[in-house]
Amino acid sequence: MSKAKIALLLTILTLPFTTAQEPDTDSYQYYGRDFTPEESRGRDTWYFWTGGGEHMWRQVSKITKGQIDLLLYAESQPRDKRFQALGTINDPDCRKAEHPDQYGLNLDVCKPLVIPGIPGESTGIMGLRKFPNPDFKPELWDVDKYRQQPQLVEPPFVVGMTCALCHVSFSPLHPPADPNKPQWGNLASTIGNQYWREGRLFNFRVKPDNFTWHVGEQQPAGTSDTSRTATDHNFNPSAINTVVYLKQRPTAPENVIDTTTGKPTVVPVHHILKAGEDSIGTAFAGLRVYVNIGMCSDYWFTLQDPVYGEARPQSPFSIQHARQTCEKWRETEAKMADMEAFLNTVQPMHLKDADGGAAYVTKDETVLNVGKRVFAENCASCHSSKQPPAEIAADKEKRTTWFREAVMQADFLDNNFLSDDKRYPVTEIGTNFSRSAGTDAKEGHIWEDFSSVDYKKMPQVAEIRNLYNPVNPRKPITFQIPAGGPGYYRTPTLVDAWATAPFFNNNGLGVFTGDPSVAGRLRAYQDAMEKLLWPERRLGVKSILRTTTKSDVILNGQTRFRGVAAGTPIKLLASIDTGSIPAFAQQRWFTGLLNKLLGRQTANELLLKRSTAPDFIEDRGHEFGSHLTDDEKRALIEYVKTF
Domain residues of the chain, as ranges? Predict the structure, then answer.
């Protein structure tokens, strides 16, 4: 070997040893430092993939005459006020624009981010991504006209949604000092954005003289009305849940129709949605979400009257047809295994590990042991994925003994989904049934293909009696939820309960603090738990969502119903098919005459009879712990705080 080669070899051998560059802790990749390639791709899908939904949202802007426009929504609030106004999460890779861009739009300025196989750029809001609009013509662009009539002017960008819009929020463990200035280390991928005001997305260009404004404004923070489109005329915004412990989540054998062969087969699946409608597997549940936010809109818009649902009834969305004809379906379906692999990595976030959180965890083992016993005797039979053998579970006394012993074990909470994930009749749970009355997954309806045969054959729940009547409190309401699947709620997980109040399927139990700090989350938790265990502390009738000013029901630029008084329950009109109201009844002279001859109360009673879910008190039901002593209730609150 020559002296030159020896010198080169010695130089190489003496170079400092380096490993592959680790992800920057200020990057979204920080959470993926130990991810497999599959998990990393799944994370990227979760954060950045829209499934082509941006094209649907442009169509929605045209249909609603600009009432709903994602591009204008994205720039509607300055970055430093966005969280307080909209509840959205600012993208850490962006900053506030110092001046309008070349098109006169006030969008955040963001770092270029190249993600293999995923197009688009951030708008500055987590989960909203912009794309070049293929129909944009620079010579016709007029930013002022676009702001006034966005349906008539093609903008330079179209905007779509990703899973991150609803599910990425502040980390309970490391919340930001300023909610408008988060870093990546302050965010959690799947905690669920309990601060997002979805209703304000759909009413931000509407004025309070339109009933639609009140529907959006009164929609609780942290909820999403997943049947807004395709609509079933049932106002039922539901809590955006945490996705956690997916591997540990119980499965149930469901008889489903194989989407490839068309033949029935029994497979173990997760139930997913509140009532367990998405019951053909996690991947298909994810695909339904993508359709719901715009994927394959050229096809699924032919199956409904988009947005308003008045001109025609729903038709089922065919998975087989979408797979054959919709390119974005095929692309998205190919990504679902990776996304599920990513979701499988999500672990609980315990209070003891939060910044300053240990100070809020009781050190009194006596109190915790009482809490454990109370949980074992009153909660664990539903709120645990660790269950006794069938022969023990069938005997109440043996089952309780088994849970007392199990809960006391040091590893009881490890890998415990803290739910049996089974469906229970809403008549047994007693909570507001609006969400359970949703009909979109029934046979013949839009999501028929996404619900199992077993779901559609669920027994019809018993008639619900003695519901509070806000029109005539002396005349309680009786209602029968339709057969064919509706009428059930699955048990929610209690994992991360300390960080995710308000509670119930509608976020109806407990105060909304709007404060993502550890202390703010615990204030919400304490209030919700006290109202859960001491029902007399609940708002009751005061929890009814109501209009605040006089308004008219105006849809698609046409007045459907006039003279809605201030204080009218939102659901009185938001949970009926306004298209079923005769045209003459929509005239101001008629409603005035009706109110004069019959009285407003009688007129409202006529509306009440058309309701799809006449359940108005939001925080009722689930009083299973009300019989406990005060000391037992306090101990249970301390124990659940450790979940």
Answer: 28-196, 252-346+423-489, 351-421+491-543+619-640
